[in-house]
Write a structure and sequence with these properties.
By secondary structure, the chain is mostly beta strands. It contains one helix and seven strands. The strands form two sheets. The protein has a four-stranded antiparallel β-sheet, with no helix packed on it. Strands 5-2-7 form a three-stranded antiparallel β-sheet, with no helix packed on it.
Length: about 140
């Protein structure tokens, strides 16, 4: 009887684990037009995402056009429910970041850059992906 209960529990656990799904959240797609912000007073650019439930981020695909160059990339979490990231404020919670990342771009067409994030956990219903110090002549497709 104990073996049957143990086997049944194992089957339930495997079934629950196998039910995890992969989802793709998009901010911009190649088929839409390209808009960029190139005002020098804009020092940060952020995209806001709303996952259906707490999740792990495995990969971020970023689209740049113009010149290839470097930028700093960050992921911020729940931010106390604010609709804008308060990255420079006291409530900031940057949960992943890398400075001086190299990104590829093309002058006339946005180019995809895949960044492996390695399972950053988002415990909430929103997160932000942001960029600072984007190289001159390189534009984030939005």
């Amino acid at each position: 009887m104990k073996k049957i209960i143990l086997l049944f529990s194992l089957i339930l656990l495997c079934g629950y684990t196998a039910s995890a799904t992969l989802d793709t959240l998009t901010y911009w797609s190649k088929g839409s037009g390209v808009i960029s912000y190139n005002n020098p007073s804009i020092t940060m650019q952020w995209a806001h995402f709303y996952p259906k439930a707490p999740c792990y981020i495995k990969k971020v695909i970023v689209w740049f056009y113009g010149n290839s160059g470097t930028a700093n990339m960050y992921i911020a979490g729940q931010e106390a429910g604010s609709s804008v990231p308060e990255v420079v404020g006291a409530t900031s919670r940057v949960i992943w970041g890398q400075n001086g990342m190299q990104f590829n771009a093309q002058p006339s067409t946005a180019m995809a850059n895949a960044v492996d994030i390695n399972n950053v956990f988002i415990d909430g219903n929103q997160f932000f992906v942001g960029f600072t110090q984007i190289a001159t002549g390189m534009f984030l497709a939005s």
